[in-house]
Design a protein that fits this description.
Shape: globular
Distance between the termini: 12 Å
Oligomer: single chain
Helix content: under 10%
Radius of gyration: 21 Å
Largest sheet: 5 strands, antiparallel
Strand content: 35-45%
Length: 176
């Protein structure tokens, strides 16, 4: 039976989500997030030929980067982004002898370790939580400006991570 004929079902809506980070120095909720990709995974396929037959086997799984787009709310969003980059190990190379290590994943840095994407139902209850483990900012696009438009400035951040875990909250009254 289709969902639109069953009044007890509530399809998941795209606009019911929250993005946050967890790090040893504190949590941050990106309340200004506009869009975010959910995690996706690719599994490469290895083919083996035995006589006149080819057999396929799953290979290495690769988690794809996600893009977080949020509205530029001025200084606070930019300061949060700069703080996150510095915590990841990036320094401004202002002097020739700066200790600019560059961006890196290392245990001595205290940048966000997990990005969290939560989805909610119509009653505001969490139904799904994705945790991106060992996440870090891969790239940032600070948006564009134009006199001919009155749109909001958007900042896009590409986030790389090692793997993702999914926690699904299923109502026990729903039967499959």
């Amino acid at each position: 039976m289709a969902f639109w004929t069953d009044a007890s079902l509530d399809p998941v809506r795209k606009y019911r989500f929250r993005v946050s980070t967890y790090s040893p120095v504190g949590d941050e909720i990106y309340w200004y997030a506009k869009t975010v990709d959910k995690p996706s995974i690719d599994v490469n396929v290895s083919e083996y030929q035995i006589t006149n037959h080819k057999f396929k086997f799953p290979g290495i799984a690769t988690w794809n980067d996600i893009t977080l787009t949020y509205v530029d709310i001025g200084g606070r969003a930019m300061d949060t982004l700069k703080t996150t980059l510095v915590r990841q190990g990036w320094n401004f190379p202002l002097t020739p002898f700066n200790n600019g290590d560059g961006l890196r994943k290392s245990p001595d840095k205290i940048g966000p370790r997990n990005f969290i994407i939560q989805q909610f139902d119509g009653a505001g209850e969490q139904i799904e939580e994705w945790k991106l483990h060992s996440a870090f900012i891969k790239s940032v696009n600070f948006g564009s400006l134009a006199y001919s438009e009155d749109d909001l400035v958007e900042i896009s951040v590409v986030i790389a991570y090692d793997f993702a875990t999914l926690d699904v909250k299923i109502d026990s009254s729903v039967s499959f």
